[in-house]
Amino acid sequence: MAPLAAVILAIASFATAAPSLSARQAITSLSATQISAFKPYSFYAAAGYCSPASTLAWNCGANCNGANPAFHPVASGGDGDSVQFWYVGVDSTLGTVIVAHQGTDPSQILAIVTDSDFFLGTLDPTLFPGLSSSIEVHSGFRDEQAKTATQILTAVQTALSQFGVKKVTIVGHSLGGAIALIDSVYLPLHITGVTFQTIVYGLPRVGNQAFADRASIGSTVTHINNKEDIVPILPGMFLGFHHPTGEVHIQDSGAWDACPGEDNSSDLCTTGDVPNIFEGDEGDHDGPYDGVEMSC
Ligand SMILES: *[C@@H]1O[C@H](CO)[C@@H](O)[C@H](O)[C@H]1NC(C)=O
Fold this sequence. Notes:
This protein is α/β, with parallel strands linked by helices. The protein contains ten helices and eleven strands. The protein has one domain: Rossmann fold, CATH 3.40.50.1820.
């Protein structure tokens, strides 16, 4: 986007910003049990980097059959180039459909979130019927989600009817987390009668204040940020981008802290701890997240 447009957008965004949904709660550390509960989902997010053939056979090794042996694959796709890998299946132990999206390496995601050719744009009303037109997302993330949206929807519907579970969990890391977050708004528009949760890692800012507020409804999103990772502070809030609620920040000590509100500026949370890209470390982007590295 041209600098002038960026400035206008930033001013417009401040003028129209909706009140934050933040509850007045303290920043609390997760217990060891709470941290461990994320581990199966971390492995599912890591397996998003594995080829469709290996996720469909569920034989990709440590992150697939090794970590989550009770998984029943339903569909996989993508080419890892023009379309990110994805897979859908059911974990019968956790009692949930899993939807996973592949991410990118730090240099590629940084190129996307700092590329001025991208802009905040509305979502396709065919895919997102009835969604308020005040909701805008990063055009690059929007276009990535649109490439696989209907295939994912069909696979989730198949999984729900074949296995009779009542829950859908959407996971992803980096770019895959951004696609997953848009899926978290998309899938409930088409599927009712089930509960949704979204667990993402190293999430960049995906949309404007209206999108962040929409994605925060029901507190179904958890986005886990590792230490000084700079991806979660991009694109900047001054460009009109905001995070939903549900941040969990992994401290240098290894403690996991739940951060209330959106973009909490406490130095225990990413927006406060990583004030600019020079004080961040892209080496923290891939993890480890409680021992799980985000790669196949
Ligand atoms: C950040 O967390 C603190 C708790 O320490 C809370 O009081 C504050 O409201 C939060 N900020 C936002 C922007 O939600």
